[in-house]
Amino acid sequence: MDKRILSYAVAALAILIMAYFAYSYLANYYPPAQKRVIILGFDGMDARLAEKWMDEGKLPHLAMLRSQGTYSRIRTTTPADTPVAWTTVATGVNPGKHNVFDFLDRDPETYMPRLAIIKKEQVEGQKPKVYNMKNGTPIWKTVGENGGWSTIINFPVTFPAEDFRGKMISGLGTPDLLGTWGTFTIYEENLEGSEETEMGGNIVPVSFSGDAAQTQLYGPNDMKINMSIRREGNSAALSFGGKEYELKEGEWSEWAEIQFEVNPLVKVKGVSRFYLINANPLSLYLMPVSMDPRDPFFRVSTPEGYSNDIAQEFGLYKTVGWADDTWALNDEATTEAIFLQDAYRTLDFKEKFVLEEMDKKPNLMIAVFYQTDTIQHTFYRYMDGQNPAYASIPAEERSKYEGEILRIYQRMDEIAGEVMDKADEDTTIIVMSDHGFNPFRKAVNLNTWLAENGYLKKKPGANTQYYQLNNVFGERGLFWSDVLLNESQAYSIGLGNIYINLKGREVQGTVEPGDYEKVRDEIINKLKNLRDPETGKRVIAKVQKREDIYSGPYVNNSADLIV
């Protein structure tokens, strides 16, 4: 899907829905309960693939919706990523007015990357406070202000959940129990010491005495609890917190309840599942630990008890926003089969829950499904013969997984069909995505380019290093350890973002305000002329100044250049 400027079509969609309820209000008429709008958000569903498979009869329900209603491609936002695009859908305004520009931004005092959509405030001796950095009025608040009720399921950038007239369970941006977007753990026998993976997971060594071993579960702020492992044949029993969980090789545990004690009065509660990859030697996977929906440490729902209501009716579930553990798969700590089992189990739970919520007939219902995005990220290489990784994939493995993207599109088609079957004639159904997908060929490291062109100064003798995510986002200060920031003019953090090292803004700024435009123009012109040394083709499609893309009070919170 076209990854250019802010989607006017998306904004228009939100405005039309708002206008409907606003008109009812102005006419002193509240819409009756049967007048409803249902929006199914299929994150990352690509228009080209969807059109191809609709035309081939492989997505019959979406094809029916297209033929009976309206269909159009829409442009996504700049950048074309989930938090930016969905926040634009929710508010109907551009990022300069809603203040979400990327997953990440940087702290100008430290130059360190930080999550752009959440701010945490720590007061000694008190529970941390978290704030959503999004601005603008989301559609569900407008609906409530005009007499309607909404149910919002897993919409991105809604953590911590806020009060409005309706119900919500937060989505992408909700952290795991450690406060990260998803830290997995592998317990591994025959390792000499603890390790951290490139994507931020933990590998914990386990030593057995006979068939018994002692290890630990790791919580926030270095909290730990003891875990015993007893092995017998191809199975293992895990004991902690007064409970035992049994599982066999190639099987998942039931939901495990994991509790850490901050003090005698305050406990941090989580839920997760284990997967026994191998019993002997031991290889045990623990997926990222979610806040327990029955008693979350931070607010994940509106009303606050709604997350518990869901658990009581449907069972335990993940509250972490990035629910599919792509990190472990990217690190090759788990397998494609393990990933898919978990992703589809998560999807099945949400499908059942969404269909039940339909029966409660809110005026506006929005449910966002992420598996279209996570499965395309992890399986696109299997169906793209020009992907750099394609040739190295064994033929049997390619054959096994080359249809996974079609499979998830068909699964979403089934969900759309079920919603269409349950909806009455007074319900408008909208199916939409926030961005599409493009095949991967090569990548450009902008900081490397900035260094090679004299804008980012490396220390003498510095070696190129790759740091794990925990090193980047932790307190170790490794991200710029090989860079002379006080001699650098520009640096890059996030998806295609370039920041000018501006005096008076950055703590070690070097660029005088009077030279700001000159430096930006130089970088733009040089990047536009960047060519692939193998093909001679231009690498960069467009480099834009923030004020040429965005408008509004928060423009200055964006990067200076967007590639």
Could you provide a short overview of the structure?
With 563 residues, the chain is α+β, with helices and mostly antiparallel strands. It contains 16 helices and 27 strands. The chain has 3 domains: 8-94 and 136-174 and 321-432, Alkaline Phosphatase, subunit A, CATH 3.40.720; 185-290, no CATH class; 446-562, no CATH class.
What does this structure look like?
By secondary structure, this protein is an alpha+beta fold. The protein contains 16 helices and 27 strands. It has 3 domains: about 240 residues, Alkaline Phosphatase, subunit A; about 110 residues, no CATH class; about 120 residues, no CATH class. Helix content is about 30%, strand content about 20%. It is globular, with a radius of gyration of 25 Å. The protein starts with 7 loop residues before the first helix and ends with a strand.
Identify the notable features of this structure and list them briefly.
563 residues; Alkaline Phosphatase, subunit A; 3 domains; alpha+beta; globular; 29% helix; six-stranded mixed sheet
What is the 3D form? globular
Topology-level CATH name of the largest domain: Alkaline Phosphatase, subunit A
Count of all domains:
3
Compute the number of helices: 16
CATH architecture of the largest domain: 3-Layer(aba) Sandwich
Strand percentage: 15-25%
Task: State the separation between the terminal residues, measured CA to CA.
Answer: 17 Å
Sheet/helix structural class = alpha+beta
How many strands, what sense, and barrel or not for the largest sheet?
6 strands, mixed
Strand order, sheet with most strands: 21-7-6-22-1-23
